[in-house]
Fold this protein.
Amino acid sequence: MTGAVPAATVARLPGYLRALRELDERGEATTSSERLAALAGVGPAQLRRDLSWLRPRGVRGVGYDVALLRERVSQALGAGADLAVVIVGVGHLGHALASHLGGEGSGFRVAALVDADPGVVGTTVAGLPVEDDREVADVVRREGAVLAVLATPVDVAQQVCDRLVAAGVRGILAFTPVALRVPPEVTVRSADVAAELQILAFHTQRQG
Amino acid sequence: MTGAVPAATVARLPGYLRALRELDERGEATTSSERLAALAGVGPAQLRRDLSWLRPRGVRGVGYDVALLRERVSQALGAGADLAVVIVGVGHLGHALASHLGGEGSGFRVAALVDADPGVVGTTVAGLPVEDDREVADVVRREGAVLAVLATPVDVAQQVCDRLVAAGVRGILAFTPVALRVPPEVTVRSADVAAELQILAFHTQRQG
DNA sequence: AGTTGTGAATCGATTCACAGCC
DNA sequence: GGCTGTGAATCGATTCACAACT
C-alpha cells in the first residue's frame, strides 16, 4: 500500500520496533509475521497489514529480515535520529521524565529543561540547567526541538503550548489534564495519568 | 443506546468529566452539547453519541444539567470512589507518580508503594512506606486494590504483572515498554513515554 | 426556536482468505 | 510447503441530518 499511514497503525509501530529490537538482540536474523505479532501482542494479519504501509520487502515462504525491517520502522518513527525534546515544567513529573528519557538509548535527546518557578530556574536537573519559562521560544529554536513534553500546572498549559507552537514545535506530549488547542499541523498526545486510571476503572466495573 | 459502551467512547469520558468539572466550578448549571464538546475538544455529534450510552437525560431545546451529567460520568469512571491504586517500582517515575496521584483530588488513593531494591524498601516516599516486592500479593489484598501502576525495569515487568493479576488486580497502567500478557478479564493500558514520543515524531515527519 | 437523541450514511480499521511468490 | 501481501468482507466508530421534544 501507498499513501498516508493510518493513525491506528502508527500507534502500533513503537511496539513492533521494540519487538524487532528484542529479536535482533537475540541474534535472530529472520522472523515470521506470526512470531513478531506474538511478541508485539497483536494478530499476524494486523501486523502484515500495518507493515505493508512501510514497503517491508518480506520474503514469501520465509519471513522478514529483522535488521532491514527494524531499520524501516526505526526510520519511520524518527528513532535513531536522536530528536531534540524540550521538557517544560520541572516538578516531580518533569524531573522524573528528564531522568527517564535522558538516561539511556531512548532514541531522544533531552535538549533543555524549562520552568517558571524562580526557585528552580538555574538549578541543575539530570545534568541540565533549568532555564526560564519566558525564554521557551529561544530555547526551542536554539536546540532545533520539534518535540516537547508538557508537565506544567494546568492553568498555564495553554499559554505555554501556544509559545511552543509559535516557536516551531510540531509535537507535544501533554501530561496536563486539559484539551490543548493547537493548529492542525501540530500533533498533541495526552498522557494524563489520572485519565488513564479512570479508563481502567471503567473497564474493571464492567465484564468481571 | 444500551449495551456495552464502545472502547473509543470510554477513552473520551475523562475529558468530558474534566470539562464538566470546569463548568460546574464556574457555576454554570446547564450546558449544550456544542459548548461541552468545544471544551473537551471534540465535535458536538460525537459528544452526544458518546453520552447517549450513559442515559444522559438531557432536555431538548435546553441542554444538559451539568451536575447530573457530571455525576453520571463520574460514576461510570469510578471517580469519586477513591479507588485504591498500588504503585510497583519506586524509581524516578514511580516516585513522581506517587506524589502526583497522592497529592490532591485525583479521584484515586495511592494505597501502597512496592519495590524490589532493598535500599529503597523501608524508606518513606510521599508519606507511604515502600514495601517489599515479594509481598505484592499481600499488599494488593490488604488494600483491596483493583488498579496498579507498573513502573519497574522491563525485565521484571511480566513477572510482577503476573503476581498482580494473581492477587486480583483488574487494571494495570504500564510505563514499561513491553507487551504484557494478561488474561482477558484484566485490562492493560500502555503509558510508555518513549513510544508516545516516537508516535509524535512520525507525525512531524509527514504533513508539514 | 432551539437542542437532544438517534436512524441512516459514511468513513476507517480489522479480519478473512487466498493468490502470488520463494 | 510455507509465508507474505492484499483484495474483499466484516466490524466498529464517526458524522450527517432530522424527527422528537421542551
Q: What stands out?
A: The domain at 7-75 of chain B is CATH 1.10.10.10 (Arc Repressor Mutant, subunit A). Residues 60 and 143 of chain B are 45 Å apart (CA to CA). Residues 7-25 of chain B form the longest helix (19 residues).
